[in-house]
Write a structure and sequence with these properties.
Mean pLDDT of chain A: 91
Oligomer: heterodimer
Distance between the termini of chain A: 37 Å
Number of helices of chain B: 0
Low-confidence stretches of chain B: none
Distance between the termini of chain B: 37 Å
Largest sheet of chain B: 7 strands, mixed
Mean pLDDT of chain B: 90
Largest interface: A-B, 23 and 24 residues
Number of strands of chain A: 11
Chain lengths: 111, 116
């Protein structure tokens, strides 16, 4: 079983739509959680950290459920520029300071 | 702030040759740098963790004699792919951890290696 699992998609949505991505992680000792965004042929860029209480950054809302080992990302009012691959990323003590990446979920927003 | 550069951004080489990729933290000191590899439509896979002044720690399945890592200063780590083969063709990305922060890492723009 992979450490971090995501639905690869693609998710094809019109502009203005709300879309949600889910992610599960297998290691209950995971301590830090992130969503990264990766554009085609580019490096990943940190979108937001995910906190236990849930957190919001503009149109983006991240939630963490430690009991279910589940992380989500909600994007409201999708823009064309949101088209990218969204990577769920965790860290746990056994990994040291290394990050463990999911395969990513591809989002395509169309006009 | 927190900019990481990589050089070259892309390289094409012949089978059997060696290729060196540089990763630099431009505006911070990075005690730890990481090297990842990403094949098309796959996730980033950690290859090795590099700490300044010490030997790199390689992930299982990554040959340390094939992928030579040197982290001689707080701002530079290099990855040398020795005797490259077509199956080594991939997107190699480094990241650096700012000594002042916990788990956040800053990624370089990546190097696309094609071995013919």
């Amino acid at each position: 079983r992979k450490e971090v699992e995501q639905d690869p998609g693609p998710f094809n949505v019109p502009e203005g739509a709300t879309v949600a991505f889910n992610c599960t992680y297998s290691n209950s000792a995971s301590q830090s959680f992130f969503w990264y965004r990766q554009d085609c042929r580019k490096e990943p860029k940190l979108l937001m950290s995910v906190y236990s209480s849930g957190n919001e950054d503009g149109r983006f809302t991240a939630q963490l459920n430690r009991a279910s080992q589940y992380i989500s990302l909600l994007i409201r009012d999708s823009k064309l520029s949101d088209s990218a691959t969204y990577l769920c990323v965790v860290n746990h003590r056994q990994a040291g300071t290394a990050l463990i990446f999911g395969k990513g979920t591809t989002l395509s927003v169309s006009s | 702030g927190a900019v990481v550069s990589q050089h070259p951004s892309w390289v094409i080489c012949k089978s059997g040759t060696s290729v060196k990729i540089e990763c630099r933290s431009l505006d911070f000191q990075a005690t730890t740098m990481f090297w990842y590899r990403q094949f098309p439509k796959q996730s980033l896979m950690l290859m090795a963790t590099s700490n300044e002044g010490s030997k790199a720690t390689y992930e299982q399945g990554v040959e340390k004699d094939k992928f030579l890592i040197n982290h001689a200063s707080l701002t530079l780590s290099t990855l040398t792919v020795t005797s490259a083969h077509p199956e080594d063709s991939s997107f190699y990305i480094c990241s650096a951890r700012d000594r002042a922060e916990t788990y956040e890492q800053y990624f370089g723009p990546g190097t696309r290696l094609t071995v013919t």
